[in-house]
Design goal:
The structure holds two protein chains of two kinds. Chain A is mainly α. Chain A has helices at residues 10-35, 37-45, 49-60, 73-90, 94-104, 107-111, 117-126, 129-147, 156-182, 191-204, 216-224, 232-239, 250-289, and strands at residues 243-244, 247-248. Chain B starts with 7 loop residues before the first helix and ends in a 13-residue tail after the last helix. The chains are: A mainly alpha, B alpha/beta.
């Protein structure tokens, strides 16, 4: 029997291998996205809810102003256009892939490779972003430029905060989807959980309406949940909100953005830890009950 | 049939030259002996695997009842099997459906954790799934695929090059070698979904072997393929084994796969190892008779034939006899010298029949098993 070869500790070895393989994983992932381009286009059309909300709320705000920030039609149009953009660029639906891999046993094939399936999932989810951006950015930026250009902040600090918030928003989306998908280790179908999660997301992320239109107590609830950091908070950063007395309060906006970024990345850290721990636990179950 | 067919002269020569039974006059399969290094590739000791399976009778009442009270059954998939396989060996892993073959292969590949016992593959404990281990093994499952469905096979190969960190020169050399042997150059850029089953299986094998694994676990690699494609894949597996001194553990319900590739077989039934040894010895053990088919130029009374062995079938120009190994040499000599024989073949009974005989025998009582986790 040959002895195992000495080498780097296993996690570091896997990490080094993953980093080296990552560009290829992204390239192959993009090739797959291109192969599924029609499906992706159709899927993107299903994410146009913010456009519906934009029309509804802009109409509701016609000739009046809503909420304590007194949001008008122009502000709401800008809000929902950026919401659409964010949803398309930071959304992740990896839950279905994870869940299907576990249920069908395909996860076994992934586990035979020396790179963790979790790393491969991130690449598969990030790879289509350039294609999604190419499809959506011209439209969204065109609409922003013609309909809501004056609403965007020019404060470099807030713009930087917005850019920093994007990877965090993607990560929260991705990690929560992985967590939900991993429930397939324990239950027959994760679909029910997904719809429950989507209900909460729709309400507390600002997908349907800006959270500043919520009653104060509900806003406080949303502050401690992860949803707003995926959508409402970054959108507000780019718009330079909050608005007080009819003008943007940039100083307050910077403070809120900083707090928001802190909470957002704390959520990313906690969720990443949860995913790793539960993944290991799930794999033990997978290995015990049938791969 | 187990044996290749031989002319009358060859039979006489081989009967004379052969050792006493079980060799007889015909070879048990054409699996050539393998060159091994003597080093152990796979060591399995008292391996157990139990599952807890949820049971629910059909119907609405049972469905409602299961909300409050779930019933489980402990399924003992593998019950204390032990074996060793040397580096470079080609071994067939046989057994009926549900015998525990795939479960054992998955444990050897590190996908399933054993309930009890020990196993080592190329010096590693599989369930740890260390990078060094994963780079030395491969598991090909005829019913599962790793090829990216909507992309050409070349993309899956490139993906594997990256995740196995195969040096570019080795990758090119290996890809060239594999595509040449399997004649894949024309389909490398065709999306996988547009390939035939046989072409896909060939590409699966390439994807699984690019990192040049030392141990191949092949679970029904020829399932669903036509006969000519089965032959191609068998030849390919043998060539890979010989070129790279790789160890092969193969399960298949096609006995031709086993005959062509595996001088040694492990037979598992109901989670227990029933036989570990040479295939031809197993055939001789269970079916000590040979089947002799004789073509005749004139009529011969059945009485005279019956003196040589059991008459299985008899026609105007052809008769099939079943003759004990110990009587074979004398019987063949008698046939050729005394009767108007124009052709004669000696064959082992079909391996399927041999297996059926084996599985029909009662298994030994199960070994005591450790508690399921």
């Amino acid at each position: 029997m040959s002895a195992p070869r000495p080498g780097a500790p296993r996690p570091l070895e896997k990490l080094a291998l993953s980093l080296k393989a990552y560009p290829t994983l992204l390239r192959i992932g993009l090739a797959e996205a291109v192969a599924y381009r029609t499906e992706m286009l159709v899927w993107m059309l299903t994410l146009t809810m913010p456009l519906v909300s934009m029309v509804l709320w802009s109409s509701a705000a016609q000739g009046t102003r809503l909420g304590p920030e007194r949001l008008g039609s122009a502000e709401l149009t800008a809000y929902f256009l950026i919401t659409l953009l964010l949803r398309l660029l930071t959304g992740s639906w990896v839950l279905w892939q994870v869940s299907e891999d576990i249920r069908s046993g395909t996860l076994g094939q992934r586990l035979l490779r020396p790179v963790s399936p979790l790393v491969v999932y991130t690449a598969e989810q990030l790879a289509p972003l350039p294609l999604r951006a190419a499809l959506v950015l011209p439209l969204a930026l065109g609409l922003l430029a013609t309909q809501a250009r004056s609403q965007l902040t020019s404060d470099p600090w807030l713009i930087t905060a917005f850019v920093l918030a994007l990877p965090g928003a993607w990560a929260i989306n991705f990690l929560t989807m992985v967590l939900l998908g991993m429930m397939a280790f324990y239950i027959d179908s994760a679909a029910g959980l997904f719809y429950a999660w989507m209900g909460l997301y729709t309400l507390f992320s600002g997908y349907l309406m800006p959270l500043s239109l919520f009653p104060l107590w509900l806003q406080k609830v949303s502050d401690v949940l992860p949803f707003r950091y995926m959508l409402d908070s970054p959108v507000k950063m780019l718009l330079g909100w909050p608005i007080a007395g009819g003008a943007r309060d940039t100083a307050l906006g910077r403070g809120q953005a900083l707090t928001s970024l802190g909470i957002e990345y704390a959520y990313v850290a906690v969720l990443a830890l949860l995913v790793v721990l539960l993944w290991r636990r799930g794999l033990r179950r997978f290995a015990a009950f049938g791969a | 049939m187990v044996a290749a067919k031989h002319t009358a002269e060859e039979v006489l020569a081989s009967v004379s030259a052969a050792a006493p039974p079980p060799a007889g006059g015909a070879r048990s399969g054409d699996a050539a002996p393998v060159a091994t290094t003597g080093e152990t590739a796979i060591a399995v000791s008292e391996l157990h695997k139990h599952y807890r399976v949820y049971k629910r009778p059909p119907g609405l009442y049972a469905a409602m009842r299961s909300l409050f009270h779930r019933e489980y059954e402990d399924k003992q998939a593998v019950r204390g099997i032990s074996f060793r396989i040397a580096c470079g060996e080609r071994v067939g892993f046989l057994g009926p459906n549900g015998a525990g073959k795939t479960t054992t292969l998955k444990m050897l590949a590190g996908l399933l954790h054993p309930t009890g016992g020990r196993l080592e593959v190329v010096g590693h404990t599989p369930q740890r799934r260390e990078v060094a281990f994963l780079k030395q093994i491969t598991l090909v499952m005829g019913q599962k695929q790793q090829l990216l469905w909507d992309l050409p096979p070349a993309d899956t190969f490139e993906l594997n090059r990256a995740v196995y960190d195969i040096p570019t020169a080795q990758y090119r050399q290996m890809l060239g070698e594999l595509t040449e042997i399997l004649d894949l150059a024309q389909i490398m850029k065709t999306p996988t979904r547009q390939l035939s089953l046989g072409e896909r299986m060939k590409c699966e094998l390439v994807a699984a072997l690019l990192h040049r694994p030392r141990v191949l676990f092949l679970d029904e690699p020829t399932i669903g393929l036509d006969v000519s494609m089965q032959v191609v894949l068998r030849q390919f597996i043998r060539t890979y084994n010989e070129r790279h001194a790789a160890t092969v553990l193969l399960t298949s319900h096609y006995m031709e796969d086993v005959l062509a590739l595996c001088p040694r077989v492990l037979v598992i039934d109901q989670g227990q190892l029933r036989y570990d040894g040479e295939l031809k010895a197993l055939v001789h053990l269970l079916r000590p008779e040979k089947r002799v088919t004789v073509r005749l130029s004139g009529p011969v009374p059945d009485v005279e034939l019956a003196r040589l062995g059991t008459v299985v079938s008899s026609g105007p120009n052809q008769v099939v006899l079943q003759i004990a190994h110990s009587d074979l040499r004398a019987a063949v000599a008698h046939l050729l010298e005394r009767l108007p024989v124009t052709d004669l073949t000696v064959e082992d009974p079909p391996l399927q029949e041999v297996m059926r005989d084996l599985f029909a025998r009662p298994a030994a009582p199960p070994a005591p098993a450790p508690e399921a986790p």
